[in-house]
Structure formats: structure tokens, C-alpha cells
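Ligand: 2-acetamido-2-deoxy-beta-D-glucopyranose. Inputs:
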Amino acid sequence: MMALPAVFPAALLLLLLPGTLTQTFRTLPINVVVENSVDKTVPLTYSTYVVDGGTLLDALETLMETNANFKFTYTKYPDLGPYLESVNGVAGNPAEHTYWELLSQKEGGKVVPLDVGIGCYIPSKNEKIILNFTKWSESADGKKPIAHRMS
Ligand SMILES: *[C@@H]1O[C@H](CO)[C@@H](O)[C@H](O)[C@H]1NC(C)=O
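Predicted complex:
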């Protein structure tokens, strides 16, 4: 009996992997900071990665799969896209005007709010994404979570 046929599939896989992995799955390191400005807990920073061109939703899913200390849930709205609902068991509550604000800090830049939702935002290398549990006010210039639902 020849050994070669049994070995061949593994060798073939090795030949195929470098191309597919480096071209299709190039990853970028990012940090996700979970801040709770309502309960004023100490912010937690998670190091994770996102596939180049992947969305923030992809990054959060990767983080949840690879780190048992991070979890999140979201709701998919037909017109508005996925909306971040809870992080580490803390959920936004319309009655209390609380929601998860999405902020970003690019390398060397300042903290700015994201203008699109988690399903559309494409993080860049070494970007810090801040998930800030906060309250919106009812004043005219108050923050409205709806701004973060846009896709
Ligand atoms: C989080 O929200 C609070 C309250 O709105 C704000 O004071 C704080 O600056 C926010 N955090 C960041 C990193 O912007």
C-alpha cells in the first residue's frame, strides 16, 4: 500500500492555506473599551482584532467568541440595521433613557461619536472603540440613540 495518497490532502491544504489566509483573513488589532458612565464602574479594555474591512459587529462577535469576559447582544431593525442592546449583561432601557453610546478614537486622534451603527462601521488598525453606557437627555440638543441606529 502506498502512503502518499493518505498524506496528499494535508500537503495540499498546506499549499492552499498561505494564500487564502493572508489574502482573505488579514486581521487588524483593535481595542474595545467598555465604560459605564451611569453606574460609574472602572472601564475595561479588551484587545481584539477585526478582519481587514470587517465591521464593528464582526469585531464584537470575534471578541465575544475569544474572551469569556465579554458578551453583547443586539437587535436587528429592518430599516436601521443592528442596534447594540446590551454589553456584559447591562442593557439600555428607554424608560431610563439609557443606551450604549458608540465612540471611537483613532491612533493619535480624539474621541468622536460614530455616525453609523455597529453593522456598518469599519474599524481601522489600532483604533479604540469605546462602548459608553450613558443617558440621553430630552433637551433639543440632547443625544438620541437613534443616531446610532442609522445604517
Ligand atoms: C461617556 O458618557 C459620559 C456621559 O455622557 C461622558 O461624560 C463621558 O465623557 C463619555 N466617555 C467618553 C470616553 O467620551
